[in-house]
Amino acid sequence: MPISVDNLVEISTVQSQKLGRLLQEIQPGIEDFLNPHLFPPLNADPEEVARFFFFVTSIDHRTSPPDQSFEGSVGDEYFQGADLLWHLSLRMFQQDSHLFHPQEMANITTKKVKNWFTVNHPKRVTIRNPEERAILLRNCGQLLTEKYHGSVHTLLQVANHRITTEPKTHHPGLLQLLSEFKAYEDPANKKSFLFLKFLLRRNLWEITDNDHVQIPVDNHLTRIALRTGIVTVSSVLANALRKRSPVVPETDIALRRKISRAFSIVGEYARRSVLELDDFFWHFGRQCCLLDDPICVTGCTSKCYVSTHLLKVPCHGVCPLNSVCLAYEKDRQRALVEPKLETWYY
Predict the structure, then answer these.
(1) Same-domain status, 24 and 80
(2) Owning domain of residue 54
(3) How far apart are CA 6 and CA 2, in angstroms?
(4) Do 126 and 68 contact (CB within 8 A), yes or no?
(5) 3-class state of residue 33 by DSSP
(6) One domain for residues 264 and 303
(7) H or E element at residue 79
(8) Co-location of 245 and 306 in the same domain
(9) Residues with Cβ < 8 Å from 173, sequence gap 6 or more?
(10) Cis check: omega of the bond before 122, within 30 degrees of 0
(11) Among 94, 105, 205, 269, whose CB has the most other CB atoms within 10 angstroms?
(12) Cα(346)–Cα(341) distance, integer angstroms
């Protein structure tokens, strides 16, 4: 039976400080989101780029179908998971950018989504739950058309350079406006903050309430937070996570909210924006601190994006967080993983 949790997650300020100080030392780099295999170029129309990020972020969640990995070759390149999602989206954008107009998205079919996100080499694989993604895209297209004349920039103008509600006038910020879209309704705001990161990094928008920025907490960041110990969980929840037992959505949301606050402390001590740190943590989680084979057990791979692109000092095949991570030498800590949950929130 799924576990329900109230107040069984705590922030470890000590561990958060240690991790933050370590990151201040190693100074991980950030991405410009100009990878020509994944994102539109700088000279593309700003509204079309904003729409691209808005719609693709709305369906950027668990990509692999059961018992398969969403990966394959497209031309001479090989992509996996989110990279394949973004690459196929960019190809569609380049072939027919009109598809990313809200009026088109409002009528997109499951068949179209299946065709869009299917690769055939080395074997045929289609993205997880294409029906669900079609529903999310249609809802985004419909509401963007109805409420904002089909323009992402109009939505951003309404938000008035704020991500949170203006305290005096109660004018809604970006988070409140996005929460009306089904794809962005996550109370922990993972996709909303990811969308914000794209907007800011590509200079498509500016905000005045930077102190309210949070990190987009997904499965990778949850796993890292649990293993490093920047949050601690009760024995009941810990056992459920180790056994990979189902949890209810409320438990997952409460856990990710605490994790978000813990990473904010990490950011304070690292003296970096959490959106910058997210670049490192996301890649670290998907390549190094893996669900079943973290590099503290298996050793590093020969092709490491984290080491070659995000660390100024090579890690030489050793986990760069080993000096502070509680899971580095503790099997039970290492067995802590993200909650088992079916969701489109992340």
Answers:
(1) no
(2) 46-159
(3) 13
(4) no
(5) coil
(6) yes
(7) strand 77-80
(8) yes
(9) 159, 160, 162, 163, 164, 165, 166, 209
(10) yes
(11) 105
(12) 10
**pLDDT score at 4:** 57
Q: Which two tokens stand for residue 109?
A: 């079919």
User: Cα(100)–Cα(93) distance, rounded to whole angstroms?
Assistant: 7
What pLDDT is stored for residue 3 in this prediction? 59
Q: In order along the chain (346 residues), what is the average pLDDT of each group of 10 residues?
A: 68 98 95 97 97 98 96 96 98 95 98 98 97 98 98 98 96 98 98 98 98 98 98 96 95 97 98 97 95 90 76 81 96 97 97
What is the token pair recorded at 203? 């200079």
Residue 289 sits in a domain of what CATH number? 1.10.1670
- The answer to whether residue 169 sits within a structural domain is no
Count of all residues that appear for the chain in the document = 346
Q: Are 4 and 234 in contact (CB under 8 A)?
A: no
Angstrom distance (rounded) from CA 149 to CA 102: 9
Q: Whole-angstrom Cα distance, residue 116 to residue 99?
A: 11
Examine residue 185 and state whether it is found in any structural domain, yes or no: no
SS3 label, residue 246: strand
Both tokens of residue 209?
Answer: 């309430």
Alpha-carbon Rg for the chain in angstroms? 20
Instruction: Give the ranges where the chain is alpha helix by DSSP (H).
Output: 13-26, 46-58, 82-95, 102-105, 110-116, 130-148, 152-159, 174-178, 190-201, 219-228, 235-243, 249-270, 274-287, 295-298, 305, 331-334
Tokens of 71: 């990966």
